[in-house]
Amino acid sequence: MTKYRVIFDDPDRLDEPTKVLVPSDNWMKDAMEGNLPPISVYWELQDDEQKAIAEGRHSEFKHDPEKLAAQYTAPRIGPLTEQEALEYLIMKDLPRKCWAEQHNRPMFKIVTVDQVPSDRTFRNAWEMAA
Amino acid sequence: MSTLKVNALQDTSGVGFYPARVHSRWSMVGTAALTDSEGISSFTDQGTGVCRQTFSNNFANANYTVVGLAGRLSDSGNRFLGLHGYLQNPTTSTTDLAQWSSSGAYNDINYGAAAWFGDI
User: Which of B43, B48, B92 sits opposite A63 (nearest CB)?
Assistant: First the structure.
C-alpha cells in the first residue's frame, strides 16, 4: 500500500478547496510490475474527448476503436519505481494544466499520507501550504 | 490461478452477461481512503462530500451505468450518493460523485461503493 498522496489545485478552479488524490494500490502494483502502456495512449484519448466536449458533441462521442484498444495492446513500458509510477499517475489523472504549464506557484505536491489532515471539520477551507 | 480472456459472456441460450467493468469502495471520514477497487487508477477527495473516481482504462463512451451505495457505518441517519455533474459531466475516464446527508448538505461518508457497467 503506497504511503503517498498527491495534493493539487486545479488552475481553472482556484476557488475550490485543495484536492487529495489517492492512488489505487492495484494500479500502483500494475505500474511497478510493468503493465502500463505509454502515457501517450491516454493523452490521445483525452485529447479526442476534450475536442468532442469543446465542439458540443460529447453525448454522441465514442472513442476510436484502435486508440481505445491501444490501452491493452500497446507495448508495455516496463516496470516503474514507486516515484515513477506516481509521476505517470500525475500525468494521467491530474488536469493537464496542473503539471504541463508554468504557474507562479506549484499546483501539486507529492506528500505522505500522514501530512494530510485527518480532521475534516474545515475540509472546504483546505489550501496547499507554500 | 487461471485467467479467462473472452470478448463476451453468454449463458447456454445465448443471453449475455454484463459484468461490472470497474468497482470502487471508499471512505471520506478522517483521511480519505480507497478501501478496495478494480479498474480504478485513483480516487480524489475534492472537498466535503465530493470525490472523483478515475478509471485505469477509458470506457468506449461516457454512457455507462453506475450503481452505488453510500452510508455511515456505526452511525445514524441516511446518506445519499449521486452524480456530481455540477462542474464536470461523466467522461470516459472519470466520474464525479457527491454524497449528501438527509438534510441535503454535502456529507462525508465512511462507506461509499460503486460499480460501473459499460463498453470498454
Answer: B92
Over the stretch B36-59, which tens digit does the pLDDT of each residue have? 999 999 999 999 999 999 999 999
Contacts A–B by Cβ distance under 8 A: 101
Chain B contact for A96, CB < 8 A?
no
Instruction: List the domain boundaries for chain A.
Output: 1-36+79-130, 37-75
Assigned domain for B100 exists: yes
End-to-end CA distance of chain A: give it in Å, rounded: 28
C-alpha neighbours within 13 Å on the C-beta side of residue B109: 30
Q: Which three cell numbers stand for residue A103?
A: 504557474
Q: Give me the residue from A22, A45, A59 closest to B43, CB to CB.
A: A22
Q: Which domain holds residue B111?
A: 20-117
Q: How many domains is chain B built from?
A: 1
Q: Name the pTM for this structure.
A: 0.95
User: Is there a domain that residue B89 lies in?
Assistant: yes
